[in-house]
């Protein structure tokens, strides 16, 4: 197991450097969007934006290696299991949150990123597990 983890970490690092076109040590939306378009044309670009929004705590539009590692986990899982959009969005959100339960504040941000404007008060729950999340999103899509 340890060996596998090391090699996937190395592979991830290699990919990060490929994406980081200007070698700034950070990747921005354009760099990541370009890479995803070339390598994973079916991956929803809205999830790239969503992940940037979730991962980018200081709002400068850049993601670092650690944040990218989380994003890459989502990409790999979605490719391996052929997830649908709602599934990918949920996975991206929960991976970035480090929790399977998503708060309604976060849910509002996720929905906004998908172009859906709702207020916290309009949501039925204060915390969403996967099933709640799917129900809530499907209601708006
Ligand atoms: Ca860069």
From TrEMBL:
Single annotated GO MF: calcium ion binding
Any one Pfam family match given in the protein's UniProt record, by short name: EF-hand_7
Record key words, sorted: Calcium
Taxonomy, superkingdom: Eukaryota
Gene3D superfamilies named in the record: EF-hand (1.10.238.10)
Domain EF-hand: 7-42, 43-78
Signal peptide (from-to): none
InterPro entries, per the entry: EF-hand-dom_pair, EF_Hand_1_Ca_BS, EF_hand_dom
Protein name, per record: EF-hand domain pair-containing protein
């Amino acid at each position: 197991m340890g060996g596998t983890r090391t090699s996937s970490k190395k592979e991830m690092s290699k990919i990060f450097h490929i994406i980081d076109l200007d070698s700034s040590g950070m990747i921005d939306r354009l760099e990541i969007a370009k890479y995803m378009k070339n390598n994973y044309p079916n991956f929803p670009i809205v999830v790239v934006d969503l992940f940037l929004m979730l991962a980018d705590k200081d709002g400068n539009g850049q993601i670092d290696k650690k944040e990218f590692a989380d994003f890459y986990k989502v990409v790999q899982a979605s490719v391996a299991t052929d997830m649908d959009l709602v599934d990918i969005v949920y996975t991206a959100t929960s991976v970035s949150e480090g929790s399977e339960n998503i708060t309604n504040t976060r849910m509002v941000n996720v929905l906004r990123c998908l172009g859906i404007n709702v207020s916290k008060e309009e949501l039925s729950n204060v915390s969403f597990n996967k099933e709640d999340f799917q129900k809530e999103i499907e209601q708006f899509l």
